Amino acid sequence: MSEHDMVLESDQRWAINLDWLRENNRSFTTMTKGALCPKCRKKLKVDLVEAKTGDILKAAKGCCSKEEDFITASMPLHESLFRVFLANGNQPLSTDELVKELNARRGIEAYRTPVTTLLRMLRSDQHYGVQKTE
């Protein structure tokens, strides 16, 4: 990827495509269970029923993402990326915003997520439903 292409693509905004998840028989509740704190898991009854997407996003943004272990350095990068969107209420983020948020939340000063790595992950995601927004 050329530097010019990276600059153009870094302006693109990304989010979890909830329609894509439904169309591909992916349960947002199941995917987010592990990200929710015990209090919110119990409140939303995610172990028993399919919770409303809006309720999960509200809980993740307002409560769970404030927990120290919501995003950690030992977590797979793709999972960390997914949780950044949860923490943000699934509002679209640019590649630059994602890199900044990942680097801050993963807490490793020496570790930096290269934009090229992040773009490759975003473009090829077939698990979390992260896609370019219109």
Written account of the structure:
- This protein is mostly helical and 134 residues long.
- The chain has one domain (3-132).
- Helix content is 51%, strand content 7%.
- It has helices at 3-10, 18-23, 28-32, 38-44, 53-62, 77-87, 95-106, 115-124, and strands at 13-16, 93-94, 130-132.
- It is globular, with a radius of gyration of 15 Å.
- Helical run tally: 8
Order of strands, widest sheet = 2-1-3
The total number of structural domains is: 1
Radius of gyration: 15 Å
Helix fraction by DSSP (H/I, runs of at least 4): 40-55%
Structural class label: mainly alpha
For the biggest sheet, the summary is: 3 strands, antiparallel
Cα end-to-end separation: 22 Å
Q: What order do the SSEs take from the amino end to the carboxyl end, as H and E?
A: HEHHHHHEHHE
Query: Segments where pLDDT lies below 50 for 5+ residues?
Result: none
Number of strands: 3
Shape: globular
Provide the fold topology:
Layout: H1 3-10, E1 13-16, H2 18-23, H3 28-32, H4 38-44, H5 53-62, H6 77-87, E2 93-94, H7 95-106, H8 115-124, E3 130-132
